[in-house]
Amino acid sequence: MLDRTAPAKINGFRQDLAMLINHHFQQLLGRPLLNAADSDIRALLYKAPFAVLAHDDEAEPIFFYANLKAQEIFEMHWDEFTKLPSKLSAEPINQAQRQELLEKVSAQGYIDNYSGTRISKTGKRFHIENAIVWNLYDINNKRIGQAATFNLVIA
């Protein structure tokens, strides 16, 4: 079970999660998610001007990371976000498309051209384009989840 403690200055902005997310992005896509020293990535990732979120690899995946931009877009605080089954980030009509995306990422390692409609806590729909979704692995190379980033949100 992944630790879902919120990033904060006192815990180094969850360096473990920031490094996990950034490492696998760079490993799979061949470029860094953020151009910064490792020691700076944790706070920069949490405060980035683009959304970054991640869910676990359970049968019903639940988010375990959402930076401030993702929290703003989805209109949820950390404690709400990290209890949310990731499928509920899409309306029921869009959940089959979302599942196909996740299966494609599982097989390929990542995709870098995803577009789809999502929904916030208050029911606001928004469209994302050119999202990047990638797999996350533990030190034994066992997949433990998937992460996503996007910066184009059309309300």
Give a verbal description of the structure.
The chain is α+β, with helices and mostly antiparallel strands. It has one domain: Beta-Lactamase, CATH 3.30.450.20. Helices cover 32% and strands 28% of the residues. The chain has helices at residues 15-29, 38-46, 68-74, 78-81, 95-108, and strands at residues 51-56, 63-66, 110-119, 125-137, 143-150, 153-154. Strands 1, 2, 3, 4, 5 and 6 form a six-stranded antiparallel beta sheet that branches. A hairpin with a 5-residue loop joins strand 3 and strand 4 (125-137). It is globular. The model has no long low-confidence stretch (mean pLDDT 87).
Spell out the CATH superfamily: PAS domain
Percent helix, as a range, is 25-40%
If classified by CATH, what would the architecture be? 2-Layer Sandwich
Low-confidence stretches: none
Beta strand %: 25-35%
